[in-house]
Amino acid sequence: MSSNSKPEVSPLAPPQPARPNNTNLAHLNPLPPSVFTLPQTAQLEALYTIIRDKETSRGDFLFYSDRIIRLLVEEGLNHLPVVARTVETPTGAVYNGVGFEGKICGVSILRAGEAMEAGLREVCRSVRIGKILIQRDEETTLPKLFYSKFPQDIASRYVLLLDPMLATGGSAMKAVEVLMEHGVPEERIIFINLIAAPEGLTTFCSRFPSLKVITGWIDQGLNDKAYIIPGLGDFGERRYCT
Ligand code: URA
């Protein structure tokens, strides 16, 4: 084993502990208080290793990115407020539990964000999902809104904003602006993404400090084409092969 390669892990190795000192997080030290990462476990890293690998087939990319999306959506739901709820169990006992406080909806940033809709539907069966299309304006080079369609009562819902890659943060910030123009308060939006670049995360969080960001992994940075490094390439291309 060379000095800079990782130690070998036997197939029978015991579960690896979470890595609270994950070096990926050293890029953002301290992490903005509104940012939450998935537990940085060996299993999670194994999933990311598969989807980052350029040799991974489309089928495997779909399967393993869906697994991460499911974890992210579940983590997003952990951040919704709950209220006391008492039920009676079949034993006749009373259980003092909790229930979700408000209604939610998803909003996917097209086109890559659409890939996260199924993961949200798996856990929130009849959830309403809005769409937003933002692209770079060729004249101004700024992100421009091309299309949006939201549930009509979106202003009274918690919004899970879906986009797998947080690179510069331009599209995500424009999407939040549009949601706020539709009456959704910043603190009712939860932004869920698979991989974040520190640059985009910092810009996004300083602009919207009370909006929670749930990310699976924080990478090293951006290259000169605004791709996340090491990243996984173009998420939409990997997912849809077009
Ligand atoms: N969008 C992608 O799909 N990949 C990146 O690396 C950055 C933005």
Automatic annotation (TrEMBL):
Pathway: Pyrimidine metabolism; UMP biosynthesis via salvage pathway; UMP from uracil: step 1/1. GO terms for biological process: pyrimidine-containing compound salvage. It is an enzyme of class 2 (transferase). The lineage of its organism: Eukaryota, Fungi, Dikarya, Basidiomycota, Agaricomycotina. Its cofactor is Mg(2+). Keywords: Allosteric enzyme, Glycosyltransferase, GTP-binding, Nucleotide-binding, Transferase. Residues 39-242 form the Phosphoribosyltransferase domain. Coiled coil: none annotated. Belongs to the UPRTase family. Residues 1-26 are annotated as: Disordered. Its EC number is 2.4.2.9. GO terms for molecular function: GTP binding; uracil phosphoribosyltransferase activity. CDD domains: PRTases_typeI. It comes from the Eukaryota. InterPro entries: PRTase-like, PRTase_dom. This is uracil phosphoribosyltransferase. It comes from Psilocybe cubensis (Psychedelic mushroom).
